[in-house]
Amino acid sequence: MAIPQREFVGYRRENGAAGIRNLLLALPAVVCANRAAFAAAQAVPEAVALEHPLGCAQIGADKEQTFRTLVGIGSHPNVHHTTVIGLGCEGIAAQTIFQGIRNRGRSADVLTIQETGGTTLTADAAAKQLTAKSSLNDPVAQETLPADQLIVGIGNFEALGDKGRAIIEEILVRGGRVLEAVTTPQADTLLYAEPYPMALRHATMHVLTGDSETLTGLAAAGAQIILAQADSVHLGGHPVCPVIRIGYNPQLWPALADDIDGMIDQRNPSAWVDYLFDVASGKLTASELLGSQLFAIERVGPTL
Predict the structure, then answer these.
(1) Pick the CATH number of 8-132 from 3.30.1450, 3.40.1400, 2.60.40, 1.10.357
(2) Fold of 146-290
């Protein structure tokens, strides 16, 4: 009888966190910097970029939540290095996001388009910064890490019922940590994108209803890998965090077999957690193979 996996192969970061991918990130502080971020990432094979419509004319809790999310993504343990790109006059300053990432003990640079001389020059400068941190120029050795260093985000999972709950219980039995997205918060429920407290084995995080927003919130809180149901409205992965999509409707499999990682009944809970540890050690998910990435930040207020 095979011994259940309780370890994974990952990357130990400078602040002690464990990553399961070794990405470089071009992070726009504001919608106006999206083009520069994507141009920089396209020039560096290991880099990814985010796209979002925020960072300007936000106020109050909505502004704070966007800031918290961008810092969480920029300091994510699956990211080796982040270059933050701003326009230079945004409401959530690139320098502030950069400092938030550095305050979490992570590697980052910052550029603004106005100071650098335009979008093209900024993209080129960002690409140079990211290239300097590539695996060729700044290699990071992999090491075997214990299950208690792995935070598994649980996205929209309701349709998987008791079989889904059994997977969660198996993760905890193996020593992993679980962060569940919930729409009804309790007294100890984390805010959206609030950092996961490593003193806990099992925590919840408040979300509203959006699938893409839920993935981003879990990733920003520190989940290195996410489990979520798969159906016609719940598909795709995330730029910095592998997403394992599990189907429950047998009619879905013939139509979307390469978009999901399997049907709930194709593996028992132990086998699903074995698969999760394989993904944590480098196996690509269906959405990673397709390059399907979803990024959206939950809103809690208007844009002025």
Answers:
(1) 3.40.1400
(2) Rossmann fold (3.40.50)
Tell me the DSSP string of 82-98: EEEEE-SS-SS-HHHHH
Q: Judging by beta carbons within 10 Å of its beta carbon (0-12, 13-18, 19+), is residue 229 exposed, middle or buried?
A: buried
> What is the reported pLDDT for 249?
93
DSSP 170-231: HHHHTT-EEEEEESS--TTPBPTTPPPPTT-SEEEEE--S-HHHHHHHHHHHT-SEEEEEEB
Torsion angle, alpha carbons of 254, 258, 264, 266, to 10? 80
Q: Classify 237 as helix, strand or coil.
A: strand
On whether the pTM is more than 0.90, the answer is yes
- The domain limits of the chain are 8-132, 146-290
**280 neighbors 142 (Cβ within 8 angstroms):** no
**Per-residue model confidence as pLDDT tens digits over 128-169:** 999 999 999 999 999 999 999 999 999 999 999 999 999 999
Query: What residues of the chain score a pLDDT lower than 50?
Result: 1
Which residues neighbour 231 within 8 Å (Cβ) at sequence distance 6 or greater? 159, 247, 248, 249, 252
The DSSP 8-state label assigned to residue 240 in this structure reads S
DSSP string, 105-126: T--EEEEEHHHHTSHHHHHHHH
Residue labelled with tokens 């309780």: 6
